[in-house]
Amino acid sequence: LTSAGARASILLREAVSGSVEGMGASFFNRLERPAFDIQPRLRDVKERLAGCGLFAGVAMTGSGSALFGICSPGAQARAAGEVVAFGLGRVHAVRSVRHGVEPLPG
Question: Coil, strand, or helix at residue 84?
Fold first, then answer.
């Protein structure tokens, strides 16, 4: 969830320009704070993901079914699935395609 329509416009503009860093910086989910209050481990996991140096941005999906990160294409994205598998549950490395995502070979 974005904080306002303007945030969504920023995300779209950054996606069109190919700026992974800009996209990551525009992530916002107003439900993160209450979800983290109820389940502090989610906050810890997000902080670990954000602090590992692979991701331009990390956020929680919708109402908290998953956390995701965005990183540059290529070797960094492939490594992400391996590096963040430090006991966080299921990890899937994918790449964007025209109509969705596809798994990276791993």
Answer: coil
